[in-house]
Amino acid sequence: MPEIGFWDYTCPRNGSLERYTQEDWDCLLDDMAAGGFNSLVLCVKWLTTGYRSRLSWLDQEPACSAITSDNAVIHHALRGARQRGLRTWLLVVATIFPAGIFDLPGGSPYGWIPEFTVYDLDTPGLNERLAQLFGEIVDLFGAEADGLVVELEFCDGESPHRIPIYNDWAARNNRPDFASIKAIRLEPRAYPYTHWRDFTTARRVETLKFIEDIVRGKGYNGDLASIIEIDNQPTAILGNVNLPMLAEQLPHWAVVTYDSIYDRRRNRLAAMDFCIQQPRSLGLKTCYLTRGVMTFPIPPDLPPTTLEEQWRMSLEDTKAFSPDVLWFMGADCRLDGLVCSDVLLPAWGCEDGRTARLRLMRMAKQILQY
Fold first, then answer.
1. Claim: this prediction has a pTM higher than 0.70
2. Of 21, 47, 147, 187, which has the most beta carbons under 10 Å away?
């Protein structure tokens, strides 16, 4: 593997690194270097905010060590990673914010956590705020980051204000209008979602180009990547991005792919086709994200599993299908968070977060033989 490492969060409610001290970071980075991991993705803006911001519409949780240290912990982590030979990436989730604080009109509740709001890419005023958000993050941390990952999760939904925008796009691209695509005949074998997917892919491309202009205008010259999502359901996998369109418009952007349920037992081969084979066949640099030290729940229809079972399958698939980059989500479990929980970790077969990550890195060396 040319690049392999952890993907993790300084953001409150995640449960992993949000209260890390500089000493905790030194331990993690030393473990990574000794274990052969050479890449770190650090999310500083998730559903919550994991850095000290001067933007009034971002949350600032006092218990978050990055915020209380005025970002000193993040600078220590990024510099320390580079000193140990790791590539560093920043991750920014740009479409989900705490309800009430981020006061743009529209939006919809974020699935199972309604205190957060999801905004589509045509939300009035969103681009202006994205310019401020990415400008601030690049100003603060860009000199210490080799790459930037942009996540536009759930940006593709239907909203009344998007209908005329879609209809204009449809007229220019010889596609049916909104009323036509809403008149859906239910047929599981041929669900007609492709026109809306192509429209939202076009909007996604425009937004990523806008963000690229912002960060390049700030003098940031690092690598760029964006997450493309899939939905892994029983007997079916759907991709929410038109990959050939994305590859044609943004060939220099890498893509980050992941199995939406983080359980390699369902549709294992099809998930590898969607996550690795298809983007690589189009010439896109492909970064595969999978479960690390992470207790995010599996679907209730699947039997229990362990972290080691999931790691082994991910590593075997990596060896077989060769993504350009492999990232494991979660390097620790310190709190009872939404993604990483120290309370739930024993049920996944590990007594604590550090023990888990050391086991993972040993297994990676054994299977990938680096």
1. yes
2. 47
